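Subject: for your reference before the review

Hello V.,

The reviewers asked for a structural picture of the protein, and I figured it would be easier to keep everything in one thread rather than splitting it across files. Below is the amino acid sequence we used in the manuscript, unchanged from the supplementary table.
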Amino acid sequence: ISRKLGPEGYGEFMVLYSFMLIVGFFSNVYPTIAIKNILENKEEKLEVLRFLRIVAFITGLLFFSILSILSPYLKDFLHISNTFSIIIIALVSLLIFLENVEKGYLQAENRFGLYSFLNGLEFTLRLLFAIIFVNLGFGIEGALSSSVFSMLFSLIILVYINKNIFGSIKKLSFKKMIKSFLLVSPSGFFVYADDIFIKRIFEPLIAGYFASASILGKAYIWFILTLFSVIFVKISEKKEKAVKYILYFFIFVILSFGITEIILYFIGEKVFLLLFGEKYLQAYEILPFYIFSVLPLLLNLIIYYINISLEKAFFSVYVHLVFYYLGFAFIKFNSVYEYLAYIFIINAVFLVFNLLFFLKKFQYIHKQNIPQ
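And here is what came back from the structure prediction:
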């Protein structure tokens, strides 16, 4: 896509794609809710599934309506070429809530092989549709539309497999569902925040350069967070060892950062040009600085995941998130490096507070576990 659209088009695509992924993160709570409630109500699992389908449809329809109504304003705010791109994202939001409920049911039924196959099929179709639509000349809208068609195909298969569309329902507590929404880490909101505002802040060419560097930086972030999911299980099982686990993983993150920067120094440019082409040559120099700038953010996200496992301090996540976005929306940046400096500094400040807060909470939990 980056080669076909060029830096200017790719910059706009990444703004829209990041916005779509953030909207999608709202739906990630539904598999958790589905699994939890189906396992707790095994005798009424189909009634729970039908109820969640209704709630997911209403939630998706609400997102679709809001995004459609606000599309002219979002277009102007994000400096996007047309409103149709926002409408495509609105369609994705409608489909993804429904899809995630169906996937959650598969997971609750321990049908992980089928679950994995359908995920792989959906992403493969998304890639194929993107290649076809972009090569047919549909540009950014074509690349985005690939998500609509692949999700729709996946949803049809999921509903066919899970069946049981009609029948009685079992109402679940909305209070507990809202709490689940709040407890789920909004990691995607943090990770994709910088890309959402690039068209608003930079000229199209610079926005495209930044987008190409940031997409590889995000690959590094998600790689580390995926590895951390193993530690997350350990912390959930042994809360008293949380500080030990987080210390070891912080050391690992620092070492991995150093190794990544060394690799970038020796072979990074060749790999970067292989991926994006000669048009993006100037973009490569941003990448090492980008990875350095997101290091405090990555450490913050690790702490937030641990807090979720301890069911503590989730309110601080949203304070951090609000301040983070306000800076992007209102601060005037004169260069990419000022932008990266902002990302580093604000996350470093919150990292200090989060570490202190985490250690204080851990000491309290540790005292609670000591026999009197």
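For the response letter, the relevant points are probably these. The chain has a mean pLDDT of 87. The radius of gyration is 22 Å.

Happy to draft the paragraph if you're swamped.

O.
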